Amino acid sequence: MPSATCQVCGGAVEEFLDLGRQPLSDNFPTARDIPHEFFYRLAVGMCGTCTMVQLMEQVPRERMFHYDYPYYSSGSSVMRAHFEGTARRFLDTELTGPDPFMVEIGSNDGVLLKTIHQANVRHVGFEPCGKVAETAASRGVRVLEEFFDADSAAAVRKSDGPADVIFAANTLCHIPYISSILEGVDALLAENGVFVFEDPYLGDIVTRTSFDQIYDEHFFLFTARAVATMAARFDLELVDVERLPVHGGEVRYTLARAGARKPTDAVAALIAEEHARRLADMQTLQRFAANTVRVRDDLVAVLRRLRAEGHEIVGYGATAKSATVTNFCGIGPDLVSYVCDTTPAKQGRFTPGTHIPVQPAESFGDPFPDFALLFAWNHADEIMAKEQEFRRAGGRWIRYVPDVHII
């Protein structure tokens, strides 16, 4: 299999899954944009030295994270509650000193820092995507419209002093130049401060065959073992882990300066669990790849059968991860009539690569389709509670995580 160089340690990365030619997952083109779409090969492998799972190819960050980036964290009530609770937890624990300071990497629309701002705690969010940064600023959040790296972190240390908390949610896994990030953390973090980040967890991805968690923005797929090894290279230590139910299964990792804090029992327990599950074995990852192909074949077969029977199928949620599903499976407007989504910036455009029309959420019930392919499966409970009228009208959901089934 092809190999690449590990972005953490420089070791050889062995490929175990090729998801084919893929577009930018959050680039929803207009009809005029379609001929100019950017494509790359989406493949994933594991470093034989430090066990970090990562993409085989990088997409330039400016192509993914730009002024018109369309994802807004506040769009989900579940995520709003999650981040408000996270902020209050920091306020009750780490931000209790005389003049605490918090930094967020990838602060998006300010969904977390809004609560920090309302508590009159000094803060700054790094957010290079202009429109979402402007939304955060309108909520009173202090935002720097730039990428976090060693240089920008050092500049904040000089102007604002050390950070008691550096936080990142669904952001660190996006960043191939991880060395510069951790050098920035080292420059900015207070001596007893913490660097906390939460991202999709490889263990859950393997268990659920949620291969759509692999796309251009998710460069790394973390495990506790790989994070601990990575942290040690920068004189940091993994001192706590916490499993999270959001976004289809994540882990919150807490790093501190080496020796500054005693690791919790949860760290050793999760690493032992990963060892027992053989998450760092290539055979485990190759079985995951085989399961991915099986889900693809099953999903396409179901969609083709339903369409042959004359049923209308629409997609629910024009998510970034749905680009992986539609392009890997070859799902276009011949199988799915349209995808409904609540994000105005996506409406009236087309899904990346496969060019299924994206329509407003109101289209879903005008009239209801026979079947809805649930791309936003990580918000299934929230969506199904909202769309009970669809079920009462005889509609049925198509799910593909952990396997293809109709409910």
Automatic annotation (TrEMBL):
Pfam family, one: Methyltransf_14
MF-aspect GO terms: methyltransferase activity
CDD domains on file: AdoMet_MTases
Methyltransferase putative zinc binding domain boundaries: 6-65
Ranges for domain C-methyltransferase: 245-402
GO biological process: methylation
Protein name, UniProt field: Class I SAM-dependent methyltransferase
Keywords carried by this UniProt record: Methyltransferase, Transferase
InterPro entries according to UniProt: Methyltransf_Zn-bd_dom_put (IPR013630), Methyltransf_Zn-bd_dom_put_sf (IPR038576), MeTrfase_14 (IPR013691), SAM-dependent_MTases_sf (IPR029063)
Record's keyword annotation contains Methyltransferase: yes
